[in-house]
TrEMBL record:
This is NPAL3 protein. Pfam families: Mg_trans_NIPA. It comes from Prunella fulvescens. It is a multi-pass membrane protein. Keywords: Membrane, Transmembrane, Transmembrane helix. Its main location: membrane. Belongs to the NIPA family. The keyword Coiled coil does not apply.
């Protein structure tokens, strides 16, 4: 009897196993839907943020070119840009709650593409079609590559999803892969900070690597905070857990220091270089952090990982071509200030005035090489003679033109 009953027991357990397996496709379709929602929110957020920043820039330029005495924060254009910027950042923040971290971070290329298109549409220069294509062909190619890379990122992005509960985040936080990753990152960050502060190594790669390492921790904490907020809205309260506030404090601190290093980089280097190199380094560091902390690529096949990496490389190339075509601002240096030259006098000093004060003039003291000019074209020296009031009531002329002799 026991031998006869064992086959029936096995047949009764088989439907249960198949039913458990059939749940997986439904979960995959739901996760793809979440990926799409997160990607659309990120694209919308970056697009709106780019429009907002251009609106605020337009407000500053308009005030600088007019006689309007109002401050920039008293204009409707600036406040419209500010509200759109808040809306865009909220969209990007919400996207981290739905899609994996490694999928959301590379989509920041949308803001670079949008800024390039807005700059081409609202350009104020007169141009011919041939000149337009010659000057902006790299921008068009870069925009096309960035769009293709974004499509590959969304299509072949990682498909790992889990609820961002306090228990899951704590478990990821104390896992040995992330602890090892944090140890390596702290060592690299300290070395870079030492060379930057103590050795005065103000290279753009070093500064942007510091920004990228801080940014990787920022996006990790942003996803944790956004995920716990979403789970709390869905009905399971997570805001009373200490790990939520730890992640919130880390998010704010790393974002502040990241902005500080970016401000220092903007003072030393061109914004186009910062945009391209910063995007590449920050995206690479953030994907590495997401793959280590949230295990984004766990269970993915090799083909999907290779196509995702190809999408990242194409997006990197597109951003590089877009930023490479931007005009570099050339500082205007119309003259050399005599105040900056040791031993030279200005009109406010006592004695002989060599040259007028140049702080408010753009027409005197231009950068010209006068070594090859004849002696007769050399400027005359105008010594200042103090007016003397004598008993005869006469006064000497205030100025006397002397013949200039060139000293060897």
């Amino acid at each position: 009897m026991e031998g006869g009953n064992s086959p029936s027991l096995q047949l009764q357990q088989l439907p249960l196993a198949t039913a458990a397996v059939s749940v997986q496709p439904h979960t995959d379709s739901f996760s793809y839907k979440e990926n799409l929602i997160g990607a659309l929110l990120a694209i919308f957020g970056h697009l709106v943020s780019s429009i907002a920043l251009n609106l605020q820039k337009y407000s500053h330029i308009r005030l600088a070119g007019s006689k309007d005495p109002r401050a920039y924060f008293r204009t409707k254009t600036w406040w419209s840009g500010f509200l759109l910027l808040v809306l865009g950042e909220l969209g990007v923040f919400s996207s981290y709650a739905f899609a994996p971290l490694s999928l959301i971070v590379p989509l920041s290329a949308v803001s670079v593409v949008a800024s390039a298109i807005i700059g081409i549409i609202f350009i104020k220069e007169k141009w011919k079609p041939k000149e337009f294509l010659r000057r902006y062909v790299l921008s068009f190619v870069g925009c096309g590559l960035a769009v293709v890379g974004t499509y590959l990122l969304v299509t072949f992005g990682p498909n790992s999803h889990e609820k961002m509960t306090a228990e899951n985040i704590t478990r990821h936080l104390v896992s040995w892969p992330f602890l090892l990753y944090m140890l390596v990152e702290i060592i690299v960050f300290c070395l870079l900070l030492y060379f930057y502060k103590e050795r005065n190594a103000n290279y753009i790669v070093i500064i942007l690597l510091l920004v990228a390492l801080l940014g990787s921790m920022t996006v990790v904490t942003v996803k944790a905070v956004a995920g716990m907020v979403l789970v709390s809205i869905q009905g399971t309260l997570q805001l009373d857990s200490p790990i939520f506030y730890i992640m919130l404090v880390c998010m704010i601190a790393t974002a502040i220091y990241q902005a500080t290093f970016l401000a220092q980089a903007s003072q030393l280097y061109d914004s186009a270089q910062i945009s391209s190199i910063g995007y590449i380094l920050s995206t690479t560091a953030a994907i590495s952090a997401g793959a280590t902390f949230y295990l984004d690529f766990m269970g993915e096949d090799v083909l999907h990982i290779c196509m995702f990496a190809l999408g990242c490389l194409i997006a990197f190339l597109g951003v590089f071509l877009i930023t490479r075509n931007r005009k570099k601002p050339v500082p205007f240096e119309p003259y050399i200030s005599m105040d900056a030259m040791p031993g030279m006098q200005n009109m406010h000093d006592k004695g002989i005035a060599v040259q007028p004060d140049l702080k408010a003039s753009f027409s005197y003291g231009a950068l010209e090489n006068n070594d090859s000019m004849p002696e007769i074209y050399s400027p005359a020296t105008l010594p200042i003679v103090q007016e003397q009031h004598g008993s005869r009531g006469g006064s000497a002329p205030p100025y006397r033109v002397l013949e200039h002799s060139k000293k060897e």
